[in-house]
Design goal:
331 residues; mainly alpha; ABC transporter involved in vitamin B12 uptake, BtuC; 15 helices
């Protein structure tokens, strides 16, 4: 069996697993519902309680987890390919921390209560600004090390500003709202939230289409990639904007959800022959599976125990990250 056949088989397998988890997320909750009956009831003029649970709670929650997970997975694979570093993640270039800073600023100012689009708009704007700052700091022709250092600096600045706003919050209720948002959750997502995040994430995905060949060439080294006709400055700019749009749109709705973009590409890389171009679609599917699985898992905790999905992904991802660091020392 050749490599192409194995790749298509992997995509088909991941797609099947994703479909299974998506359907499972419609069934599982604090109170399981008959999904088939709920679908039929939703078509009636007078929808039943179970149909409202399906269409207003379970379905948007599953859709948001699918799109956000796919975004974090594919952007993580893109960043690891661009930086040629398996420890890279979408947040390394400031997209995640910038989105968090923008969203917390909106919560701090009180605009989120006055204007329902303010929170996602703030997250997207913060992501774009932070990513632009990293790009300007690193310089148009800056090397990978300079880019990583710029990302670390901007992330530190964004987190400092978030801490300052939490410290200066006008009331304990504002502090609680900011902190809970930072934990990351899709439990209260609605179809309106899904439609808000969809344009930015889709645009980011479209910008990533066609970058696989350039990322494959980059594995041979920057000089070799340039001789193959790859414009590294244009590629970097394209991936930065795509990641900022997609990750900013997702995190603006879900809150801070970490480690998905790190864990998924690393696990799937050996299965695609360590080829960044093939890793992009596989990581999108894998990220969606992981976030759907995490969201299903938090529903299985006893009633009254609310565990945020961002907390669960961090509990899984942090030890895995430490393992990767130990492994890299052996290399």
């Amino acid at each position: 069996m050749n490599t192409i056949d194995r790749h298509y088989q992997l995509i088909a397998l991941l797609g099947s697993i994703l479909a299974g988890f998506f359907l499972l997320s419609l069934f599982i909750g604090s109170n399981p519902i008959p999904v088939a009956q709920a679908v039929l009831d939703s078509m009636r003029d007078d929808p039943s309680v179970i149909s409202l649970i399906l269409t207003q709670v379970r379905l948007p929650r599953a859709l948001i987890a699918l799109v956000a997970g796919a975004t974090l997975g594919v952007c993580g694979a893109a960043m690891q390919g661009l930086l040629r570093n398996p420890l890279a993640s979408p947040g390394l270039i400031g997209s995640a921390s910038g989105a968090a800073m923008g969203a917390v600023a909106v919560l701090y100012s009180g605009w989120s209560a006055a204007f329902w689009l303010a929170l996602p708009a703030g997250g997207i704007a913060g992501s774009l600004l932070a990513t632009l700052f990293v790009y300007l700091l690193a310089g148009r022709n800056g090397g990978t090390t300079t880019l990583i250092l710029a990302g670390v600096a901007v992330n530190a600045l964004a987190m400092s500003l978030i801490s300052l706003m939490v410290n200066l919050a006008p009331s304990p209720y504002a502090v609680r709202e900011m902190v809970l948002w930072m934990l990351g959750s899709i439990a209260h997502g609605s179809m309106a939230d899904f439609w808000i995040m969809l344009p930015g994430t889709l645009l980011g995905w479209l910008m990533l289409v066609g970058t696989g060949r350039a990322l494959d060439a980059l594995t041979l080294g920057e000089e070799t990639a340039i001789t193959m006709g790859i414009n590294l400055s244009r590629l970097r700019r394209r991936l930065f904007v795509a990641t900022a749009l997609a990750v900013g749109s997702a995190i603006a709705v879900t809150g801070a959800i970490g480690f998905v973009g790190l864990v998924v590409p690393h696990l799937l890389r050996p299965l695609v022959g360590h080829q960044p171009g093939k890793l992009l679609p596989a990581s999108a599917l894998g990220g969606a599976i992981l976030l759907l699985a995490a969201d299903i898992a938090v529903r299985l905790f006893p009633a009254g125990t609310e565990i945020k999905v961002g907390v669960l992904t961090s509990l899984v991802g942090a030890p895995f990250f430490l393992y990767l660091i130990v492994q890299s020392r052996r290399w």
